[in-house]
Amino acid sequence: METYEAIKQWKDANITAFFKSNRSLNEFHDQIMRKVFQVASDKLNQPPPCDYAWFITGSGGRFEQGRISDQDHGIVYEQSTDANNEYFIKLGEEISYGLDVVGYPYCTGNIMSSNPIWCKSFEHWKLQLVNWMEKETWETIRYVQIFYDARVLVGKSSLIEQLKSTIYQYQLEHPTLIRAFMTNIKHIKNGIGPMGQFLVEPYGGYQGCINLKYTAFLPYVNSIRLLSIKEGIFETSTIDRIYRLMEMEKYHELLQNCTEYFEVLTKYRLSLTEAEDYDDTHYLHVKQLTKDERKELKRILLEGKRLHDEVKKRF
Amino acid sequence: MEAVQVLMDNLWVAIGAILVFFMLGGFILLEAGSTRMKNAGHVAGKTIFTAGIGTLVFWAVGYGFIYGEGNAFIGLSNFFYGDASAADGGLTPAVDFSFQVMFALVSLTIAFGGFAERAKLGAYVIFAVLFSAFIYPVVAHWIWGGGWLAEHGKQDFAGSTVVHLTGAMAALAATMILKPRIGKYNKNGTSNNLAGHNQVYTTLGVLILWVGWFGFNGASTFGVSDGFLGYVILNTQLAAAAGAVAAMFTAWAVTGKADIPTTLNGALAGLVAITASCGFVAPWAAVIIGLVGGLMVVFSMKLFDGLKLDDPIAALSVHGTVGVWGTLSNGLFALPALSTDIDWGQAGLFYGGGWEQLGVQTLGVVASGIYAFVVSFIILKVMDKVMGGLRVTEEEEIMGLDISEHGSYGYPEQMALEQAKLTTAATKEKFS
């Protein structure tokens, strides 16, 4: 496969075979994106001038992509020289273009390797992360959290691990920082109303649907990420993070139901694979669920809120 | 002393007429705020010329059809009203006329809620004439003008049935015939929120309506004796307050957000609900009536939306559904001292009056509602055929009725910018 179009065709023809589990679907996405990277770097007609890591973040980084996701990715490379900077930005632009062609739409928040903020040498990345944490603005803290979900697809993983260590160390030295992280994710969209009913979309094409991403996933994902930053856990998938946290006794009680509930949630999202565009993968029509499923989903939403509230209380 | 009393009565009802007319100002802001920017000038401005048409028609024939000598169905004298006589122990005929005409205009304005954002200007003109001549006056004659419902003892203190239900039924007919606005419903049956462009206008509109309602209900005492107007105003205030609070909490409980448009409709629902009963019930009952009205309006709006009846101003729910509840509530809560004892119908069910008053109220609502709906529907259907459609073309609807019907936008700079977005970068530059 030497062109993005060929990758797209192959992806469209084969993706349905990977819907059977979250793992297989995400491994499939990884494989596709690695191919895109390969074609993009071939197009530059020049091998990378130094060691680097190409990482994806967001739901891809967390190994939680549905059928369709927009692209979130960045590059860390070892040395900063004019030639290197130019090379990797060019590579980043090519990757972003290729991913878009293959069916991962451009990231509206511009978290892409084509953006100099997300494509930097190791030293500059380090400075930038510290700078973000020093600034402590809503936006910079958000960037740090996004970076924390980075997972290397191509290149040297140790580059990312070292940068994550920087975050962990800085946070240890600045105990108040964790509160800034919390403030950043404080707002969640309620999925359950005061009378115990689902709070569904009142209008629009998804009228009557529940927004799984905002009401169900984010309370879990954000709370667990926060605990992971605090404990220096570098895994990116929420479920792996939960397992690692569960190894610590202090989290046993808080997280006892989380693994099960989060896995079920992932299955619900997998059921939305008929999705035709990115938004569709977030909306679940509650009327189409059985009575038991509705009960189960409510339990999951309430547990997510409880977890989020509990984490909020601790910081 | 009696002369003073007569003067005071006249003055109070004249003030009432002014307050009721000012309710049109409330409707202008309410409707303009609840609709989109491209239609704002039209939605606001049409209220002024339909008030003009309504006034002239009411003067020419409307008042005569209501209060003229006639039969059980309609009055047939006093056309081209011109009684300039002085007060003869009561209201001067001119004060009475002025008060009456304002009610007709309110009803007409409610009816036009069902036309919003898609009807041709010509449809407004013709329907304003026909409604003010043949729909509103007939119902008003039945209940107020000595018609066949008048002697039944129907309790409708300020005109919940005559004014609100009649207007709402015409709005319902229009909503059904005009069909939903472009973009309101999706192919999969879901509905979009075509949000109004200015919640501040809508809010101020509601407050003005609220104040105007003190004239609508308060001056329906037709005088100041015993200071009963204060009691009516108190009940009105309580019900409106209860309606606003109930709707806000209901919206919050149902959707998780205490949204502003719903809260505002709750206040209006409280006002509509107490219109029929403000002179008959105890203050605690006014609170209950308002609370139920505020609760009902939320679900009624959802119901109409689900039935694909696109009602941008919520006229059907606020004035229709809640108007019916308000009228029926007399049958439950009317106090003996304000009904049986003064020979105005029976006490309500909760005061040992039995089911009788509830039956009378139901009959009034059903008969008036059916008449207003059927006649409006027929008139609008015929207009639809004769005028080649009541509705503007798709293109006109998309560009907005301000430009299509009147030739200029209510928000010229904004709309020019909107258009520039759709055209060239060069035009965009021109406006930046």
UniProtKB/TrEMBL annotation, chain A:
Entry's Gene Ontology molecular function annotations: [protein-PII] uridylyltransferase activity
In terms of InterPro entries, this protein maps to: DUF294_put_nucleoTrafse_sb-bd (IPR018821), GlnD_Uridyltrans_N (IPR005105)
Residues of the Protein-PII uridylyltransferase N-terminal domain: 23-137
Against Pfam families, the record matches this protein to: DUF294, DUF294_C
According to the entry, every stretch annotated as the DUF294 domain falls at 176-315
Q: State what protein this is by name.
A: CBS domain-containing protein
Automatic annotation (TrEMBL), chain B:
Its chief place of residence is membrane
Q: A GO BP term, please? A: ammonium homeostasis
Q: Which SUPFAM superfamilies match?
A: Ammonium transporter
Query: GO cellular component terms?
Result: plasma membrane
Q: Does the keyword Transferase apply?
A: no
Transport in keyword set: yes
Give TM regions: 12-31, 43-66, 97-116, 123-145, 157-178, 199-216, 228-254, 266-299, 358-380
Name where it's found: Cell membrane; Membrane
Q: Which domain of life is it from?
A: Bacteria
Pfam families reported in the protein's UniProt record: Ammonium_transp
Q: Name one GO molecular function term.
A: ammonium channel activity
Q: How does it sit in the membrane?
A: Multi-pass membrane protein
> What range(s) does the Ammonium transporter AmtB-like domain occupy?
12-411
InterPro entries for the chain: Ammonium/urea_transptr, Ammonium_transpt, Ammonium_transpt_CS, NH4_transpt_AmtB-like_dom, RhesusRHD
UniProt KW keywords: Ammonia transport, Membrane, Transmembrane, Transmembrane helix, Transport
Q: Which family does it belong to?
A: Belongs to the ammonia transporter channel (TC 1.A.11.2) family.
Q: What is this protein called?
A: Ammonium transporter
Task: Give the source species.
Answer: Lysinibacillus antri
